[in-house]
Fold:
Amino acid sequence: MTSIKPNDSDDNVNRLKKTISNMEAAEAAMEFAEGKELAAIKAKNERRKESIEGLRTEISEEEKSKINGYI
Structure:
């Protein structure tokens, strides 16, 4: 049975940093990849870009909420 963790804005910042780091490492790995492996790396990095944008938006919204006194 899994327990639900509260949304922690600090966790979002750490997730953002880790996702960016993973994307940069994957971009470096693309230099040595070809075929299906290269396609898989590119696809994963596209998903990472979407995740990064979502995390940035969420962090921004959380900051606005803090400023407005909601959090």
In short: The radius of gyration is 16 Å. The mean pLDDT is 90.
